[in-house]
Amino acid sequence: MIAEKKEVRPESPLIFEKSLPGRRGVRPPAVADVDLAELLGAENLRPEPPELPEVDELTLVRHYTGLSRRQLGIDVTFYPLGSCTMKYNPKVHEAAVALFADLHPYQAPETAQGALQLMYELQHDLSGITGMDATTLQPAAGAHGELTGILSIRAYHHSRGQHAQRRLVLVPDSAHGSNPATASMAGYAVKEIPSGPDGEVDLEALKRELGPHVAAIMLTNPNTLGLFERKIRQIAEAAHAVGAQMYYDGANLNAIMGVARPGDMGFDVVHLNLHKTFTVPHGGGGPGSGPVGVKKHLELFLPSPQVVRDGETYALDYDRPQSIGQVKSFYGNFGALVRAYAYIRMLGQEGIQKSAALAVLNANYLKELLKEQGYRIPFDRICMHEFVAQPPEGFKTVDIAKGLLELGFHPPTVYFPLIVKEALMVEPTETETKETLQTFAAAMGEILAKGKEWLEGAPYTTPVRRLDELQANRRPKLRWEKG
Amino acid sequence: MDYTPHTSQDLETMLTRVGAKNLRDLFGDLPQDLIFPDLDLPAPLTETEMMRHLRELAAKNSSAATSFLGGGLRAHYVPAAVVPLAARAEFISAYTPYQPEASQGLLQAIFEYQTMISELTGLPVSNASLYDGSTALAEGVLLALRETGRNKVLVSQGVHPEYRKVLKTYLDAIGAQLEEIGLEAGKTPTTQVSTEVGAVVGANPNFLGALENLAPLAEAAHASGALFVAVVDALSLAVLKTPGSYGADIAVGEGQPLGNAMAFGGPHFGLMAVKENLVRQLPGRLVSETTDVDGKRGYILTLQAREQYIRRGKAKSNITTNAQLTALMGAVYLAALGSQGLKEVAARSVVNAHQLAKRLTTIPGVRQITPRPYFCEFVLELPKNPSQVRSELAKRGIHAAVPLPSEYGHNLALFAATEVHTERDLAGLEAALREVLA
Description:
A: alpha/beta, B: alpha/beta, seven-stranded mixed beta sheet, four-stranded antiparallel beta sheet
């Protein structure tokens, strides 16, 4: 048995361990005998070269190909990671991006009109989808968009002489951790608002905290329980009545993409995660893109530059005296913008609304299937794009996750939101077939049937089994050392 | 065209199962007067039509693949192996490796990346990447302020002007002060550092391309209890002294020169490496080696108590998604070239830049501003408006002459050369510039 296990789970040497002095991979164009000490000054040179791997190209190819086979992605298996929207990333987007690879941000604008036109149209399209008046494409990810949005709100209060009094941001206790982290980065104090028994924001508790000292409320709608906040209009009204701004965390927009617009619900600012809702690949943790849309009264404060149109010409407008400034060099993660643009162009209004509706249908269907397998649903009503489940009494969520890995599925998000014990947050997305959902539900049942002992030992045949996290925390080993 | 697989039979079965009459029924919790609005979007396209449309847009751009533009990003060659390997389906379609048993591929690749960045910078700890050079600088400075508990930052004018703008946005947010050290003759003078200062920032090479000896500035920072943050050019570290060796506590930089397409400014990746004592202050992901229950070597995200999804309002940064795939391209690039290959790319870029400067300064009215020694970018004073010069050159099929902000002086333009350029390219730019300035 042990010998068999070793065969299933071979060791994976580091590329440094495959390195041999003198081996060469890619060779750059030849350089004539050059005296770097003369050109750069001997005192500026490093005495020893960096120790980088020395491998031939085939070894390089096999190394990374081998690593990729120790990795799950959407292209490999079902990946229902809640709040992460792991939908299919169309392959044509990669071909689309390649068309724009060789543009430099500082080339003369008249030689990049196609790129600027794409950005201009995307600003317009995203404003339309979110119900906002203006959109910046500069932020590099969702959390970066949050910071941009909150700083825009801050600049708005400042412009009205209310910055000093408005020092607090309210977030529900079900919020993503990035919300309070962002508010802190923007210099705000944060207060959490409890959820009511229905899993939604407790409106009365919220009203008690509201006042002229509040700068903004940050909300995700649907919230992280996958429930639509039904009192959203009353919340927005109460916020606006005391001069606070409504911030929409777009992490869960896939549920209502094009079906209902944050701008119409009373939100003043929204950030989008193009790497969730608009199919930009997650890439193992980025790069993403986090555009921010705002209502008219906040437009002046958006980062500089914005893409503007003058007749048939597109240009970068840096003349934005009230702008919060720049949040990233150049104009944002343009490659991500190309993918989102291609997606929106192909889907159009019909495809966008249909995709959101089917994301919701898939989630509700899977919720029913999991109930049948014995999983508990703490807030059981029609959910949006995701739902929160709990394993049957006595089972631990971490074990469910590890059991799923053994069966070749990526588990749902675990232990989030924090307000549900042993939470499994499941988001199937619209691009999965009914059969996949059925197979997954059957696997969820199968692991329960295998029993606790099996689950506690799982996974068994993955490239590694459960890892010692404590050791990594106490004595982190963060790089390879020779010898 | 969309990517949903549902047949009409599927729809019927599934709707029945969830107890809804139709798809609209699923949105019963929403304000009914708001749902299914008009989005003002163009009609949907098929894949064929969309690609044709994008090709038409792309045809309105002109490629800068052999350009002489610089300023953080440059036209380096990306070896053919880089994108197909880094963008393999398993890597590109994965989320952050929260489930290590299913993510050993990425986790090991990040561990190797951390080692490579540590080697380049001469600092022991690298994180898994940040968005880009500008935000890496902002995060590095915030780290220094957290560590020192101070509220003021000194930054050299030699740091990329856009990086300084981004830094200002981040510092304004927390009410910290930013003060600049003006360049003197193209270099950063060593200044007094008061005890309110938590971070001192310099760049090597600086924005003008000049090499700087930042050791005295780092010493001045340390003498008053501040940390020193070095902004580096990742490629230059193939040959130049490491920030670790001249006293940097934190090194940050833009990763694009390492195997990333310019892509009109992004996405690329930001690198960050720090001294050992700062590890628990680091923003972003960090991968550690560990062992599994069978004692087998494996890799895992570590020290996660720094991060937002654990610490919420008390996190070291709000950063979540960073730039893993583009950092992976950087790692594949470094492994493809090795230290010898990287040195050759750097050397050829340096030689080309020096030959280019020699040629261009023979043109009447053109004067070199960047002092020697310099790396592969340099600044020239032109006898004509640089924006016009850039446009005139573009008409002749050459991208060059990035206009410098006026804080550096009048009629200044930045030029860069890389390993892609040949003698003919250099002569071509010289001839074109001569014509434009005549």
